[in-house]
Amino acid sequence: MNWIFILAVALGGAIGSVMRYLVGIGAGRAFGTDFPWGTLIINITGSFVMGVFAGLFAVRWNLPQAARIFLTVGICGGYTTFSTFSLDTFYLIERGELAATAAYMAGSALLSVGALVAAMHLVRGMG
Predict the structure, then answer these.
(1) Is 26 annotated as a binding residue?
(2) How far apart are CA 56 and CA 77, in angstroms?
(3) Residue closest to 48 by CA, chosen among 116, 111, 109
(4) Tens of pLDDT along 9-37?
(5) Residue 61 and which of 36, 68, 92, 110 are 20 to 30 A apart at CA?
(6) Where are the domains of the chain?
(7) Phi and psi for 32 in degrees, rounded to 5?
(8) 69: exposed, middle or buried (Cβ count in 10 Å: 0-12, 13-18, 19+)
(9) What is the per-residue burial (b if ≥16 Cβ within 10 Å, else e) of 89-122?
(10) 24 marked among binding-site residues
């Protein structure tokens, strides 16, 4: 077990979790809480940032493994919210909001993957 990697995850996770909390609160204030806007925004932006990091690791940054783990598993892992996505989806279904459920599920999956692909192409185009 590599304690440096564990520390990298823990520190990055703390940062990502605080960022997630702040974005979630901000989205709730900006857009209301009837729809899980915060989680949707976090999943999309988290996927985009993950794509930027992965792209930079591939073409520009030669970082030590601990730094890569800090950024991806730590910060991005603490920030992104697919476990919360599942809970939000459940609550939408439970409330009988099937159209909102479908929009939320499709938007989260398609836009997050699209954001990652866009980031990878953006970063690869820089090299």
Answers:
(1) no
(2) 18
(3) 116
(4) 999 999 999 999 999 999 999 999 999 99
(5) 110
(6) 3-126
(7) 90, 175
(8) buried
(9) beebeeeeeeebbeebbeebeebbeebbeebbee
(10) no
